[in-house]
Design goal:
The chain is of the alpha+beta class. It has 3 helices and 4 strands. The radius of gyration is 13 Å and the shape is globular.
Length: about 100
C-alpha cells in the first residue's frame, strides 16, 4: 500500500491509498508515475526499486524512519533526514 499526499503551498490537501502493483519494480514505478507522484518517501528499498523510481523521474527520499505523516510534514518543512541510496529491503526475498 502507498499513501499519496496531494500537496499545494506546503499544505496537505488530500490523502489517498493506492494498492501496489505486484508485477515488479518497473511496473510499480510506472504505477506511481501514472499517479503523478513526484517524491517517494520510504524506509529501506533495494537497488532495483531505487533505479526504477529514478528512471520514472521520481525523487527518492530513502531510509526514513518514523510515521508517514511525520515524514511528509518534515519533507514539507525542509527538515526530513533521508538518503538517496538503496538500503536492503525486507519486504520480499530475492532468488
Amino acid at each position: 500500500m502507498f499513501r499519496i499526499f496531494d500537496v499545494e503551498d506546503g499544505k496537505i490537501l488530500n490523502v489517498t491509498q493506492l494498492a501496489a502493483d505486484e508485477n515488479g519494480h518497473g511496473a510499480l514505478a510506472k504505477q506511481l508515475q501514472a499517479e503523478h507522484v513526484q517524491v517517494a518517501i520510504c524506509g529501506g528499498l533495494g537497488m532495483g526499486m531505487l533505479n526504477a523510481l529514478k528512471q520514472a523521474g521520481i525523487q527518492v527520499c530513502a531510509n526514513v524512519t518514523g510515521s508517514v505523516e511525520e515524514a511528509v510534514q518534515a519533507y514539507l518543512n525542509g527538515t526530513l533526514v533521508y538518503s538517496e541510496e538503496a538500503h536492503a529491503c525486507s519486504g520480499h526475498h530475492h532468488e
